[in-house]
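Hi R.,

Here's the chain you asked about this morning:
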Amino acid sequence: MARLYLDFGEDFERVQPVLQRWYDETVDLLLPSLGDGMRPPKRGRAVNEGAAARPVSAWRDALTPDVCQISWTWSNRRRRSSLDLYVFRFAAPDHLMLEASVSFEDQPGRLAEIAPRLQEMLRRVASSTDPAYGEVALDGGAVTGETLLDMGLYRINSDSAAESRRFLRGYDWVTVVPRELAERLGGVAPLAASGAFAEVVPLPEGGVLLRAGEAEDPYRPETVHAVFRALAPVLPAGQPRRLPGYDLSRLVFADPAQLEPTDPAPAPVEAPIHTAQAQIISDFAVEAVKKGWLTSEPLPPDHPGAAAGLLDGHARVGLTEERRQRAEELASRLAQDSDPAP
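And the predicted structure, written out as tokens:
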């Protein structure tokens, strides 16, 4: 299940393209995963303010300034799967929740297939706007404006939504952090360096999308605790409490305000480069630049010889073929100088 929360719902000119894209990306990314035989909805439903539900035959027909709820469903009886889209206005006119939910009856193995698609869909739509919050949860939930953290803190959704740019509304397998809170966390680099996330994706408006782990095992206790600790500076204070009838295992039952700050993990200690080695590398770099030996094609990872170790594959740089022998000679000299005399 993917959810995106917006806090500018009364600005129809701004919100209408986001709602349309939510539908378009669903059709592009999620619908094909349900396989052949998917039955299109005969019609969806829309609820406008102060009115009864009305049928709509096209998604765009539901997009009116006073719409409060839209629901849209595809089903595949042969494969026992379904796809539901929702738009839900909650708490106040400005607050909208967009949801896409996929279900596979008695087919848990398909989770790993659909989870990356949910993440990519959320990324695409979040990249087109300035979201207040977003998440991908891999175990479903009710269609309400509350997040799991709201439920654990017994926090009403109107308060949570109103403060969504002061406090993060929750955290899950994939979490969209709004720009204001991403700035307070230091941005992409510190979040990536925290080690809590398998993926940190910057969004155009300044927010970030965070993926905590692999879909096959998304809620390992150590993973959930690492995410909680990394996001603690922007989480609302308070310790979640058990809620009868609800699975809150994706939450850490601790107060983020009580956590002691931790220093970043120390960088790996590498063998020092001695003065003689540094001079060899410097001389070669100058020579390579002057004589045009560098190319935009990196050395292949399986390139034989020591030269491959000199050039980091992530740097996207390599050497012309005729100068790789020179690099091999350099690598040999460095190896000989690796144990300097005392």
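The first strand starts at residue 2 and ends at 6.

Let me know if you need anything else.
M.
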